[in-house]
Amino acid sequence: MSRIEQVITEIEEFVDNCKTATLSNSIIKVNKEELKALLDELRQEIPEEVAASQKIISNQEDIMMAAKNKAEKNLMDAKLEADRINEEAKRRADAIILSAKKESDVIMAEANKLKSQLVNENQIMQTAYEESDKIKQYASMEANRIVYEAVNEANNIRKSSIAYADDLLQSIREIISGTMRDSQNKFNQYVNSLQSYTDEIDKNRRELEVSIVPVNPNTGE
């Protein structure tokens, strides 16, 4: 707070503390000497405050001018630095572009060389594919031939096996038939023997019946 503001505050406090006149709330009784002393002090402080304010304003103008000059100098320095940085960046960019171009030329040369090699390799691969197709076709034909011959051989073996089995079965049938004939003959002989035994028994029975003499009950003979 400035001294002028302090004096004004003191005057306000002085007025507030004064007694009011009789039958009035707005009229006060003041001490003339005290009020005059405060006003004199205020009158003395005003020039000093004004001078101080003017000095501050002058100082502010000097400060603003110094700040402006410094800002202009900083701006100039910044512009020079920016120009230097741009120049350096341009120089480095040109160097990078030149290096990249050289590297690109080397890569393109390698690519063209590789492309030529790939063309040759493609021709080789094409020839290899053609040879592979021929080999596959030959292998397929050979496999079909082998399968055909194997099937024929298997059929021949199967026919031979069937013929051999049929011969064996025929031999077995003949053996069984011969055995059956022999068995039938032996059975017939056995039956004939039994029949002769039966005939002999019947004959013996008849002879026994003839040899029995009946007894007369009257004579006892």
* Class of secondary structure makeup: mainly alpha
Mean pLDDT: 78
Could you describe the largest sheet, including whether it forms a barrel? 2 strands, antiparallel
Q: Ends: how far apart? A: 201 Å
Quantity of strands, as a count: 2
What series of H and E elements makes up the topology? HEEH
| Outline | elongated
Strand content: under 5%
What's the domain count? 1
Which descriptors would you attach to this protein?
221 residues; two-stranded antiparallel sheet; elongated
Task: Describe what this molecule looks like in 3D.
By secondary structure, this protein is an all-alpha fold. It has one domain (3-13, 31-178). Helices cover 88% and strands 2% of the residues. It contains two helices and two strands; from the N terminus they run αββα. The protein has helices at residues 3-17, 32-211, and strands at residues 19-20, 28-29. The chain has a two-stranded antiparallel ribbon. A hairpin with a 7-residue loop joins β1 and β2 (28-29). α1 crosses α2. The longest helix is centred in the middle third of the chain and has 180 residues, at 32-211. The radius of gyration is 77 Å and the shape is elongated.
